Amino acid sequence: MWLKTLATSHLSRIAVLVLFIAFLLRFYINNTSQQRLFSTQELSLFNGTDQGLPILLGILGSVFDVTKGKTHYGLGGGYNHFAGRDASRAFVSGNFTGDGLTDSLRNLSSTEVKSVVDWRDFYLRSYKYVGKLVGRYYDSQGNPTKYLKGVEAKAARGAQLLEQQKIEEAKQPSCSSRWSQDEGGEVWCDVGYPRLVQRPLEIALTGKMSKRCACFEESQLDQPGLEVYEGCDYHANRCKA
Ligand SMILES: *[C@@H]1O[C@H](CO)[C@@H](O)[C@H](O)[C@H]1NC(C)=O
Ligand SMILES: *[C@@H]1O[C@H](CO)[C@@H](O)[C@H](O)[C@H]1NC(C)=O
Ligand SMILES: *[C@@H]1O[C@H](CO)[C@@H](O)[C@H](O)[C@H]1NC(C)=O
User: Fold this and answer.
1) Where are the domains of the chain?
2) Which listed ligand is nearest to 98 at the C-alpha?
């Protein structure tokens, strides 16, 4: 009886200790790594100017420590405009001036939004995640806003669209191509004839991907939307591009 009481009291002490450690851990994680919350102003201090501070970058409200990429993100580096702020839009617009450096993704296509989410994944893989930026994507409690959920849903639609397009394009073989300094670009088909085809608008919006070269057989050549390469014969199977 006495032994049994000792054992239970021992057990309950261990239980209390475990709970206490769990509480401490949770407190530690919430306050130091996972949950550090930044205001726009706080984040702006980590722009690479002060050599004593880490360099931080925000994307879709997630904040990363990019100090190890100092040559790019530091003062004078090619990506310095990403430091100390969330310039999510600039990852796809390439516009690093004035209002181009915004975290708004308004009016971007679903495939462009997907591309920004891919960039965030890249930073998750390559750099240290240090917290959240309070504002458009996270509220003052660090919870995702409806804007972030909207962006993620739109990116998922973009991913679906790209997947469908890949399946679609697999049905029509792509041209072979090569490029050399002396001769420039060339496309050709081992079977069929090279034609330029317009991609769907949602995908075309992502810059240079607006058209692709595919090989069509004789019987398909009267399909609408097929473009013969400029200066190339209707029945040539090799064209300068
Ligand atoms: C860059 O950071 C420094 C301090 O680290 C700060 O004084 C300066 O205002 C920041 N620049 C901008 C544009 O926020
Ligand atoms: C960048 O964005 C700003 C503000 O939206 C605009 O005024 C400017 O023309 C844009 N620059 C380029 C190169 O698109
Ligand atoms: C978004 O598109 C609408 C309609 O095309 C336009 O009126 C608006 O100015 C655009 N907004 C931004 C931020 O580009």
Assistant:
1) 37-163, 172-240
2) 2
CA–CA–CA angle 189, 202, 199 (5° rounding): 15
* Strand boundaries in 11-162, DSSP class E: 37-38, 56-59, 62-65, 128-133
Residue of 97, 101, 104, 105 to mutate, ligand 2, most atoms within 8 A of C-beta: 97
Calculate the alpha carbon distances from 122 to 71, 140, 232 in Å. Answer: 18, 25, 41
Q: Which residues have CB under 8 Å from 108's CB, separation 6+?
A: 89, 92, 93, 116
Do the beta carbons of residue 35 and residue 98 sit within 8 Å? no
Position 108: which residue type?
Answer: L
CA dist 155 and 149 (Å) reads 10
Give the global pTM. 0.74
pLDDT tens, 128-182? Answer: 999 999 999 999 999 999 999 999 999 999 999 989 888 888 899 999 999 998 8
Topology, domain 37-163: Flavocytochrome B2; Chain A, domain 1 (3.10.120)
- For a substitution probing ligand 1, which of 42, 49, 80 has the most ligand atoms within 8 Å of its CB? 49
